[in-house]
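Reviewer 2 asked us to include a model.

Predict the structure of this chain.
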Amino acid sequence: MKRLTLTILAAAFCLTIPLNAQTYRNISGWSDQINNRIEDFLNSTITMNTRKVAVFDSDGTTFGQVPHYLADEALYRYADMVLKERKDKEAKDKLKILDRMVKDGNNVGKPYVENRVHFLAGLSPEEIEMIGYQCYEESYRNKTYPEMKQLVANLKEYGFEVYILTASPEFLYQKFVSEEYGIPVTSVLGAKCVVKEGVTTGEIIPPIPQDDGKAHTIETFIKTRPLIVGGNSRGDMDMLNESAGLKIVVNPDDITVRGPEDGPMNGHTVKSYWEKEGALIVRCNDVRDPKVRFHTGEWKIKENVANPK
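Predicted model (structure tokens):
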């Protein structure tokens, strides 16, 4: 009887293994070679007892940025649709901030990024959330990369915490990103500001997830070294180098040769640098939808380069 009981228990244990196994599902649109590399890496993490974390950049990495960054489109759209109809001092002050941003022109520079926060100051987190969400619904709903959604689904299957970083105001992105990728709003980290009595201020809480600030954001708020990091541009270099395992680079530029100011990337394009470093290079379709009106272009902000797959 004892032997029979042990045999039944062993059989029951074997039957539970497939139910609890972590199963990789191939990402359609990416090659077998890319899928095999991701699957092999994820399988290597199964026995880990530490936190398993993956961190991704936002614009250009998890959804499209062509022809313009969503953060810019949300602000210029709000200006055209709401502020230009008003004559009060607050509206005029906000439009002056946009005028400074247009004059600056460098929409990946820290002063420009900080001015996005200053522009939104005085609104509630919920109002900012809806400005971003409505812009997403109108102009970016079809620009979420299906391959990246499949990747994130696999990461969840393997027990990963997934974070998405953006240099844009945090409240602007949290609602639509968390819904699209099925992650908590607290896992969408962006430029933070102090909130007082339910209203946002222009007081920025560092670090801003821009350039080296993305790496500092990982250390400050996520508090562990990620096993997987994904990005798409020169500005993601410091963050990608935080990866303790797999580096994934989406649609990297292979035209512009970086200069001495880009440190170790000097003399390389973004693509050639990460190929040299052994990163996984993947492609996602990012082109302009001619049926969508983009207010940002009407404000004479430069367009991002298309990446047809």
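The CA atoms of residues 99 and 272 lie 37 Å apart. The radius of gyration is 22 Å. We have added this to the supplementary material.
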